[in-house]
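User: quick one, fold this
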Amino acid sequence: MSRNIKYLFLIVFALMITSCEDDFLETKPTDAISAADALATPANMALILNGMHRTMYSQSQTVLPGANTARANEHYWVPLGDNLGGGLIHSANANNLGWRDEARWISHTQETSLTTEILWYHRYNIIANANAIINKFDEGTLTVTASLREIVGQAYAYRAYAYLSLVQHYAKGYLIGNPSSDPGVPLLSSSDAPFTSAARSTVQEVYDQIASDLDAAINNFGDATPRPTGSAFHKANLNIDVAYGLRARMALATGDWATAASAAARARKDFPIMGEDDWKAGFNTTLLPEVIWGSNVIGTETTFFRSYFYLASNTFNGSQIRNNPKIADRRLIDRIPDTDYRKDMFLIDAPNSSTSAANGTGGWANNTNPLYTTEEEFDAEIARIKAQWGLASGHRTHPYMHMKLRQKVPGGIEPDDIIYMRASEMYLIEAEAKAMMSDISGAQEALRPLGEERDSGYDVTVYDTGEKLMEHIKFQRGLELWGEGFLFQDKIRWDEGIDHAANGGSGATQTIYQDGFFQERPSINTDWVFKIPQAEIDANPNLGPEDQNP
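Assistant:
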């Protein structure tokens, strides 16, 4: 991995002092900022940390030498979970940035693809930066203050986050495999070039490292200055709540149900469930009250046509969306009670105005919706939807298209913020964990606040068995967290495959989805595991061809 992170300090430091001026990054000598200078003071370490915040959403070529503009890091990785999992459904052909290839299960199964390579090196870049801060702190040469504890706590939490992402993508799922012997990912302790890692550790060893890092993060945060409030930027900083949220995710993935439940409850305690107006506001700002962690995206990063909203929001004025409105799985949406306001954000009866739709059902000539008895009514509804939601003239409409994810200025190209963690996820983690412990009443009580806020007719007591509870929790996760990137890992944890044709069909077409239309469950299907980049196997002396995932 040395090839892709050898410019570590130059990149993260330059990001902060040059606002990503391309000329500077291309011409500045690689040794212009040494590790010693970057780590000389807590103030400099804070600049490294702020650079890490920026690299979460910057285009990958500003972080990784030899990377590509087509992957703007979390703008891409967050919605990828729903694109791969089959929840964020393409209604027509559009393959900008390889987004359709992801849905077809092409990219992550190729060791030379941009997706497998850039995700790998981005996560190890985070780890190398975190190592630099942690290793410097461990030297014991700095005066320990509350502000230094806050920096170190974030470094540990970032490292845990990166390892969790790596092991969940490049290794077999913990609950469906043999973690003590299954190959995980390499552990990297170095903070100096050439950043050569060890060989692949086992899945269990990687999770042990994650747990240790989260313990260290929480211990440091306990004596740290608290995270400021009131600014969207502040939510980019990891704090003790984020660390507990990561612990809850880790514990859920490993079947440590008691820890998952308690950590989730702790993570969400200061973040109230948002109400209807906030839920319907577009999920475009980290200032929403239940957001625990997210990136405050700044315009100078120019991620417009590389952004989360370009890939996932039906109001974005880009070619990925205009002719290919993203729809939700109709089997999920049809289950939403009319008393649940989340149903309003999925336009079940939107006319199919796309004559290029892959299923051949677009345009008035193919209309089968009895709501529209004339072409004038059909066209009038299209015009009404565009006016209501701020769509541009070139935007198509489609049944079951969503309006959950929307920009602050619909019909434009602004990227807006990216949300990584919010309180509703923590309620759902707590509920699932308690259901898995056969604590029926505890799971019901964890679900009650969320369900009663979203659905005026909600009655959690009808889910009075473990089987009913788990089925309902899966529904609630699918609906509440739709488009936020969780579906791929949920299916791995639950050992569920993808079948767009089952139970009346999802609305996806096999013409578009090809191999992604049906995938066997993860426990018997190696394609749920990402390929290790061939470039890593070629460059890392501790990895060989035998280490490639099957």
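User: anything notable?
Assistant: The two ends are 21 Å apart (CA to CA).
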